[in-house]
Amino acid sequence: MTYVDGFVAAAPTASKADYIKHIKLAGVVFKEHGALRVVDCWGDDVPDGKLTSFPLAVKKEASETVVFGWIEWPSRAARDAGFEKAMADPRLTGMAMPFDGRRMIFGGFEVLAET
Predict the structure, then answer these.
(1) Is residue 47 part of a domain?
(2) Tens digit of pLDDT for each residue in 79-105?
(3) Owning domain of residue 40
(4) In angstroms, rounded to a whole number, what is the distance separating the alpha carbons of residues 26 and 11?
(5) What is d(CA 30, CA 42) in angstroms, rounded to the nearest whole number?
(6) DSSP category for residue 96
(7) Which end of the chain is more exposed for a tag (fewer CB within 10 A), N or C?
(8) How many CB atoms lie within 10 A of CB 35?
(9) b/e sequence 6-27, b meaning 16+ C-beta within 10 Å
(10) Is residue 53 part of a domain?
């Protein structure tokens, strides 16, 4: 089974074009370092919650949109090696994040089933 890195964050709505530019380059870099697939999504139906929700989890402000994405890897070992290489890649090290990374939720997941 594959391994997946997932994330949720809040990006400035007015900076959608900057976000797209960032994720396109990041996607290329991750794929060059072993990722099988990189998917990035811009929220358009992400309701506020009272107890839990994506907007609450990332402390979304009125001027922001929830973004969600994942990177598929062949294995955890491939992810560990590829992620380290991608984070050291000069194309990403000098790039400013197009969102507040302190409010990003992320983690790695072992795939249990695919349908």
Answers:
(1) yes
(2) 999 999 999 999 999 888 889 989 999
(3) 14-65+76-100
(4) 16
(5) 19
(6) P
(7) C
(8) 23
(9) ebbbbbeeebeeebeebbeebb
(10) yes
